[in-house]
Design goal:
This protein has 12 helices and 12 strands. By secondary structure, it is of the alpha/beta class. The strands form 3 sheets. Strands 3-2-1-4-5-6-10 form a 7-stranded parallel β-sheet, with helices on both faces. Strands 7-9-11 form a 3-stranded mixed β-sheet. The chain has a two-stranded parallel sheet with strand order 8-12. Helix 4 packs parallel to helix 5. The two termini are 31 Å apart.
Length: 302
């Protein structure tokens, strides 16, 4: 049993990690900035720790009070993505500084694209694309810098994490389609996005903690790559609107801030993760969940 400081503890993924860890005998010190979040954590069998990403010192105090840290928090305002990735770098650095001189695990979060090995090839765990244009590379740089200082860092890389309420970048796609009355995709829509059900992802965080290996990187991938056109068609069926193939120029206007992601081909493998941790995803597929969204209501906040 470990006392785990968990950031993002009341969020989409973090709340499931709370349940997963509590059910396996761990004590949780969960980050929250609100009375409502504290009440939820206490009801879930966790202890609340007040703090916020904008004040990294508050997170460093949480890390100092725990046997291990799992960092799932991230500011999902993608219109300020670069600034939020830099904020994540500062937070990781602060928590890592609190763990210096110990072997206490620090598990941080990144994206599967950081393991890219080239166009058309699945991202893999043992690769790091330091030249990746995705600003989220800042999180992995922060982790690598801490590892060089002796901090026991591991990384969980996320795909599109889903259930019937949220689906990563696909949730804002639904809202764009709802507003525009058509579901767009770029070109032939053959580009692929990896995916995993949120409960499978929560289980992976627990396994990464319990079988901690310094320097390890894990891809939380159940489906290596779901074609974006299939995603668009599932959304279109749910909303009762048509699909449309867009040129790159049209995509910039249609997708707005999401445009840089819309045409990316991002397949990712989890073969090494499954072998190292014995992780076997069991949840529904992405398209299964997209078919079961309540399209009569707007998506929940990210």
């Amino acid at each position: 049993m470990m006392r785990v400081f968990l950031t993002g503890a009341t969020g989409f993924i973090g709340s499931r990690v709370v349940a997963e860890l509590v059910n396996h005998g761990h004590q949780i010190l969960g980050l929250t900035r609100s009375d409502a979040g504290a009440a939820w954590l206490e009801a879930a069998g966790a202890q609340a720790h007040r703090g916020e990403l904008e004040d990294p010192a508050t997170l460093a105090r949480g890390a100092a009070a725990a046997d291990a840290v799992i960092h799932t928090a991230f500011d999902h305002d993608f219109s300020n993505f670069v600034a939020n990735c830099e904020k994540d770098r500062r937070v990781i650095a602060a928590m890592g500084a609190a763990l210096l001189g110990s072997d206490r695990p620090l598990i941080i979060t990144s994206g599967t694209g950081m393991g890219s090995t080239g166009p058309g090839r699945p991202a893999v765990e043992d690769a790091v694309d330091w030249d990746n244009p995705n600003p989220r590379v800042a999180s992995e740089r922060a982790g690598a810098e801490l590892a060089d200082q002796g901090v026991s860092v591991a990384v969980v890389r996320l795909p599109q994490v889903h259930d019937t309420v949220k689906q990563g970048l696909i949730s804002p796609l639904v809202e764009i389609a709802r507003a525009k009355g058509v579901v767009g995709y770029v070109g032939d829509g053959a580009n692929r996005w990896p995916a995993a059900h949120v409960l499978d992802v929560a289980r992976l965080y627990r396994l990464a903690l319990e079988r901690h290996e310094p320097g390890a990187r894990y891809n939380a991938v159940a489906e290596e790559g779901v074609p974006v056109r299939a995603i668009a068609e599932a959304i279109a069926a749910g909303l009762g609107v048509p699909t449309a193939s867009l040129s790159e120029e049209e995509a910039a206007d249609y997708f707005g801030w999401l445009a840089p992601f819309a045409a990316l081909d991002m397949p990712a493998s989890s073969a090494a993760t499954r072998e190292r941790l014995g992780w076997q995803p069991q949840g529904p597929s992405l398209l299964h969940d997209l078919e079961r969204i309540d399209y009569g209501v707007a998506a929940a906040d990210a």
